[in-house]
Design brief:
Layout lengths: L27 E7 H5 L2 H13 L2 E7 L1 H9 L5 E4 L2 H9 L3 E16 L13 H11 L3 E3 L5 H12 L12 E3 L4 H11 L2 E5 H6 L7 E4 L6 E9 L9 H12 L1 H9 L1 E2 L2 E2 L2 E2 L3
Parallel strand pairs: 1-2, 1-3, 5-6, 5-7
Antiparallel strand pairs: 3-9, 4-7, 4-8, 4-9, 4-12, 10-11
Length: 273
């Protein structure tokens, strides 16, 4: 097992489920991925199918996208599955990844308390919502962890011509934590936050919180998959990594992603080319 995997145990989800054909250590790979895909239960659902069909055991390291990319750059992984397309393209462009493929998408939403102090409920514009939150100095909870969600949030603030860090520590609150912890902090303090829809659906501590803003094209959330470049990282298990990627992008893999639901709601929408 890769050396840094032990160091990531706190934020690691090791998923080795189901029965499979006989396999060897060469068929065990590490996928650097996001907390949103892991916390949603998607891997618990998909990986037994992968193992049954391919004999490959998948070990998922579930961290923020920025950390997942950094881990992959450090050769601590065979496959990268994250949601920050520009960062993924840079990863490939700098030679750390072989090729990037679209896998699936969902969207981001703004959630908040029923009191709705900034008056954003029912809105369809993410930028207008952020401007109202900042203008009203309403509490906003940010992951502030360089995750895909945090990258998207900061891009939206920039498009809204607003620097929320000017309110850091007063109305703009930064957790430096994953989405679940950030949602808990938001609910506990009456703050707004932005989350991917899959995590929101699977989140168990909603209390009286609800989605306030959704449906803006700017909130589109694309996931991509990349094999770590064996020319950069000699320990990459090329054949097993490619077999996993091929399964995820196949008609069967895409149909399995589409079929995954919680509470009757579809969490991810496949769109592999």
């Amino acid at each position: 097992m890769k050396t840094c995997l032990k160091q990531a145990l706190v934020t690691t989800v090791l998923i080795m489920l189901g029965t499979a054909p006989a396999w060897s250590a060469d068929n065990s790979i590490i996928v650097q991925s996001t907390t949103s895909t892991a916390n949603s239960g998607l891997y618990d659902y998909l990986l037994p199918m992968v193992r049954k069909d391919t004999g490959i055991t998948i070990n998922v390291v579930a961290v923020g996208t920025g950390q997942a990319i950094k881990n992959a750059q450090n050769c601590d992984g065979d496959v990268l599955l994250v949601h920050a397309k520009s960062a993924e393209q840079k990863f490939v462009g700098e030679g750390y990844g072989v090729a990037r493929h679209d896998v699936m998408y969902n969207d981001f939403v703004f959630v908040g308390p029923p009191a709705d102090p900034a008056g954003i409920a029912g809105g369809k514009s993410a930028l207008a919502a952020l401007k109202r939150i900042a203008g009203n100095k309403s509490k906003f909870m940010s992951r502030a962890d360089n995750s895909g969600t945090h990258k998207k949030e900061m891009a939206l603030w920039k498009q809204a011509a607003t620097d929320p860090t000017q309110g850091s520590g007063s109305w703009y609150l930064e957790t430096g934590s994953g989405m679940g912890a950030t949602l808990n902090a938001a609910v506990g303090s009456g703050a707004y936050t932005m989350t991917d829809r899959a995590t929101w659906i699977s989140f168990k501590n909603k209390q009286d919180y609800r989605i306030q803003v959704e449906g803006d094209d700017l909130l589109f959330n694309q996931y991509g998959i990349i094999m770590v470049n064996p020319d950069k990282c000699s320990q990459v298990r090329r054949d097993a990594a490619q077999a996993f990627i091929d399964w995820v992008l196949s008609k069967k893999g895409q149909a399995a992603i589409a079929a995954y639901q919680l509470d009757g709601l579809q969490l991810f929408f496949p769109n592999a080319n």
